[in-house]
Amino acid sequence: MFFKDIIGQENVKERLLTEVREGRIPHALLLAGPEGTGALPLAIAYARFLLCTRRGEHDACGTCPSCVKVNKLAHPDLHFVFPVVKRKSGSDTVSDDYIAEWRELAIGTPYFGLNHWLDAMGAENQQAQIFVKESDELTRKLNLKSSEGGYKVVIIWLPEKMKVECANKLLKLLEEPPAQTVFMLVSEEPDAILPTILSRTQRVNVPRVDDNIIAGALTSRFGLSPADASETARLAEGSFLQALEIIHLNDDNRRYFDLFVSLMRLAYQRKVKEMREWSEVVAAMGRERQKHFLAYCQRMVRESFISNFHRRELTYMNRDEENFTARFAPFVNERNVAGIADELAEAQAHIEQNVNARMVFFDFALKMIVLLLK
Q1: Rounded CA gap, 67 and 74, in Å?
Q2: What's the CA gap between 349 and 360, in Å, rounded?
Q3: Nearest to 132 by CA among 87, 95, 177, 102
């Protein structure tokens, strides 16, 4: 990943390049932005630039021995930390246990989200975390000399998934970093990171990508017509990853849509037995997907409510969602929209607290019977 490969984010690129040119490289950088806006690709491109031995004015050379190693994400001075699931019961797992899967995903699809990473690991129902052992492993690596005499770069993807004990140990590294070591924290939820860590990083916000830039990338890279590219970019809401998922018919989004439609129909028809079976299906998806599904439901409720105003420029749905909402929207109105939103928020909180998923989703499904008839 080079700076030239990143979709948009010209201001962020220029800021990072300027800091290098002026010798103001921060020892701890926080790249904060929503999923799919390019924060991780930016971190990798910046790491390449720092490690390159023949860097140009605006990008790494791509041909020096250092760049050749970064091509495979196998540079000895480039270290990755990311959420993982335990491989062996009773012992913490570290990022290096999954480094082969990480390299394959990050090289093949630089724009990816947590769900894609969970699939790559075969996580099933486990929740990914950054465990305590990771900080000890990182300390060991950084105590070694730089293999090529330059910078040592650590990219921590989703530090908000870090266990508190691990975060406290990382804090010591950030307070007294080894010489020529650069930490890059790539976060989608910076408010969930320990304040003591946030205070020791220089924050760079990675904003949503402009629709015109996403549309241009879709046209040039995937051959979409200008009209289709513009509509896809509008639906993507500033996320290039979401744009890719729209044009590739992402399996998760299709499943979420089918589950949402199924629940609404079952609730309207008061088919309690089938709703119980529905809750069993959702409970088997795993905690991270359950949280994403509830977020999807919240979005669909909002889109359905807005559809009642017949202002298409205010809605962001694909064709299947629009077709369903055309019939469903009248059932989401001022009498029940707040109640549905509250129940979804409560279900999401319970899932995050590891409450039994079958109970959470069956309870929510039953409440939808009453709410839809208001």
Answers
A1: 10
A2: 10
A3: 95
Instruction: Count CB-CB contacts under 10 A for residue 118.
Output: 21
Whole-angstrom distance, CA of residue 295 vs CA of residue 301 = 10
Dihedral in degrees, nearest 10, Cα atoms 51, 141, 22, 110: 50
Rounded to two decimals, the pTM is 0.74
Query: How far is CA 77 from each of CA 53, 80, 85, 116, 182, rounded to the nearest angstrom?
Result: 13, 10, 25, 26, 10
Distance CA 186, CA 194 (A): 14
Q: Which of 57, 59, 70 is nearest to 148 (CA)?
A: 70
Average pLDDT in the chain: 89
SS (H, E, C) 147-201: CCCCCEEEEEECHHHECHHHHHHHHHHHHCCCCCEEEEEEECCHHHCCHHHHCCC
Distance set, CA 121 to CA 75, 89, 105, 128 (Å): 22, 16, 10, 10
Q: What is the pLDDT of residues 132-150, one digit of tens each?
A: 899 889 888 888 887 777 8
85 Cβ neighbours under 8 A, 6+ residues apart: 93, 118, 121, 123, 126, 127, 128, 129
What is the reported pLDDT for 107? 92
The per-residue DSSP string of 251-310 comes to HHHHHHHHHHHHHHHHHHHT-HHHHHHHHHHHHTT-HHHHHHHHHHHHHHHHHHHHHTTT
